[in-house]
Queue: 3 jobs
Job 1
Amino acid sequence: MSSKIYLLSGLILCVVSSSVSAEVKITPISLHSKNQHYFQWRGKPTILVTSGEHYGALLNQDFDYVKYFDELQSHGLNHTRVFAGTYRENNSAFGITENVLAPEPGRYLSPWARSSEPGYAAGGHKFDLKRWDPAWFTRVKNLLQQASDRGIVVELTLFCPMYNDQLWEICPMNAGNNVNGIGAVPREEAFTLKHKELLDIQVATTRKIVQELKEFDNLYYEVCNEPYFGGVSMEWQHRIVDEIVDAEKDFPQRHLISMNIANGRSKVENPHPSVSIFNFHYCVPPDTVAMNYGLNKVIGENETGFRGSADVLYRTEAWDFLLAGGALYNNLDYSFTVKHPAGTFRDYKSPGGGSIELRQQLGILKQFLDSFDFVRMQPNASFVHSVEPQLTTYTLAEANKVYASYFHVPLPTKPKNLQSILKEDIEALATIDLPAGNWKAEWLDTKTGKISKRDLLQHAGGKREVKSPKFSNDIALRLTRQD
């Protein structure tokens, strides 16, 4: 850095040269230095929690992402997942009402510019895969800045497989939709190393995005949504990871990279060394966290839903996953649409859920976790020895200091008759394995955020019974050493 000193009207002015801006180092969200199962962002340990729109906030020009971010911020939620625009859906995809990933004709934005040649299958001119659309880059930068201003971290998902022929028919990378004649391949081979011209476009697009977005600290990249569908090869995914790493090699700070591993659970084998986040979908129960805890990286559930519309399904799933040791939870929230960017849509027929009430409840979960020094905690499956009545339970603990436990009625993945399972006025008697000492027990109402009951416990060590207040369906317990 250099500067010059000028004397003007008796005042000394120090003018710093323009090279300062080039030397300013951002610190993007990273793995926490003391516990890489969690994030660190803007100087604080971080867990990402949200109930987010269906990934079209960037590519759908009619979606008001400012109102959307305002709604997330109002509940203390700090995450969103956004598709880059290399993939889109049609109105019939997956039975989703007012699908944000299905923009109206002429309202779809991708990184590639439109040509002057008509004939795009979903309306308008074909794409030119060798020219960028400035409007896309303007919009993505504004979206990231608006999210940043509200304390929201963006997962930018670069690619997504085509689940069926109808989706491939409207993809810009299909040769019928671009003027370059690139992409005359089976949809199952679109994300492999078999077709050099198409691969070159994907590599160039990845590198261009990474270069353009280097200044943002509220960003990480996911290579591909659900690559276990549609023929996406692991070699292709690793190639995209390598391109991100190489594109950022001269950056002062580098962004995290995520890979989406499986629906449900899977053991990660031979992970790419530059991948820091391993994301899963539909994790009921969350046993994939324990299966992959030894990676010493973030385990996330960055999509869930398709279980019905009831809030209790996704509230319990979020608590389970994060108290099992996960660091990221994103419910797929169908109350967000173009017409309802603040998430006020109630009458959707989509396969999942989402509501203002659920977002409030997820905010309570995040506040609960943030009340702990969670980077010092780890899952403890043996803390709750038994509980009557039978309940599902997960615990995070800093041994001999603090314990966070969660209890809820057992729930199948997709209950056929949910109301027959839910219970009111439960009084749980839990046997816990508690070290000797004086302890404060606080029972948290997960729907209101209020403490339902407080007890002071003097304990000689070993097994100890604790009794909850009456609750409906689920409750949380915080135990804190007092001596």
Note: The chain has nine helices and 24 strands.
Job 2
Amino acid sequence: MRIRSPLRSFGLVCGQFACLGAIVLSGPLIPASLLLLGLLLVGVGLGVWALITMRMDRLSVLPDPLPHVELVNTGPYRLIRHPMYTSLLIVTLAWVLAAPIWWRWGLWFSLLVVLVVKLSYEEQLLQCRLPGYDAYRKRTWRLVPFIW
């Protein structure tokens, strides 16, 4: 059984927002390329779809399950266990590709590492709280359908 660690949770969220903030502040928010704009819109669309499906009352930036947690397996959650993280990675990838400086790539890969650690921790906590989570985990992908 995994023990919840508030310090770990806050550290992961701080790392996530630090990487995100540095990427946002270091380049254009609207890519000049239509291809990158399309990638950005795909990421935003996935994020909005995930938010609508999840509902705001079940949303938390912390990986710790809320007291009234319930398994969501509709919308993008049918295929992806963490579509909001996928959305964030797609959007930030479009921003990094719009101004692909080596240290912005470093920020993006740091964000990827933080999100993978965060989702792994979150899944351990959900496994302890939700009886059907293990079966859900076995039939869905973590971040990218058909890849991982």
Note: The chain has a mean pLDDT of 91.
Job 3
Amino acid sequence: MATDYYQMLGVSREASADELKKAYRRLARQLHPDVNDAEDAADRFKEVTTAYEVLSDPQKRATFDRGGDPLRGTGGGAGFGQGFSFDDIMDAFFGQNAGGTGRGPRPRMQRGQDALLRLDVELAEAVFGIDHEIKVDTAVVCSTCAGSGAAEGSEPVTCRTCHGHGDVQQVQRSLLGDIRTSRPCPACRGFGSTIPEPCSECSGEGRVRSRRTISVSIPAGVDQGTRIQLAGEGEVGPGGGPAGDLYLEVNVAEHDMFTRAGDHLQCQVTLPMTAASLGAHLDLPTLDEKDIPIEVPPGTQSGHVITIKGEGVPRLRASGRGDLKVQVIVETPAHLDHEQTELLQKLAALRGEEHPQAVLDPQHQSMFGKIKNAFR
């Protein structure tokens, strides 16, 4: 015949079945139209597919070696002829047995899942850090079987249904040839082995649920929603597999006096009108249980903010601390006796404020006032 299938696959005439399959895989990866956009890629792919279809079938190969036509009565080799399975294409692109044949059993020992818990802390604990002991309910390795899942004195045995492969095969004949599919073995659930005598403590899982105490160090500067990862403190996996991670999500309780804004702390102090007018010296208690002296300058207005550098929240991933911002609220006396009223009247007279006039702050004019002024 004019076509030399051996030369097309790049193998010798004495090539074994494994050598043929390896050569076909290599060429199929190179020539498949999905990965090769050359104009002749599709035609060349069909040619090497036909060549492998012929040479992988002992009868067709013998016919070809004798000089006969191995494709007579098979549709010209354009598709997948008899004896050429869908697995051969899958093998070429995804490696040996990608189509399901001999995929192999899945391990009983698997990594456990991660766990997430909420950790409630006070504002001072979030700002300055603290060591906590928490109780968690998670899966741990079964102490009776040490994670094997088998009762004492027994062990897993090879599955009789899949003979240890972990999956079972089904072959369907179609116009494209034999299409082979696989699914996990229903008898062993894909493990390739069964446990005839499962552990009575864990029922063959290799793990049990238990409550345990964990010590955790909360770093200074954590905020609402911060997650702390504890590696290997999550759920132990099936079959006694390695544990996942435990994540603690910080929930910061509200404080009576202080609020947080990023790395800054905020609070308010209320002063009588006289103290705000004359000035005052204050000792402000803080979250870290110390008093900070604050000088309130004379004539301080309500809403004025006094900033104390470096007395805020320690930065979580950097050095230094934020600031403490103290907002002054001036309290106007609501109930005056006769003497206090006379004193304030004298002060108003001295300041010429017996008949005060409303003065509109230009920054807070209404839109109507701004339009009126624009036409004056």
Note: The mean pLDDT is 83.
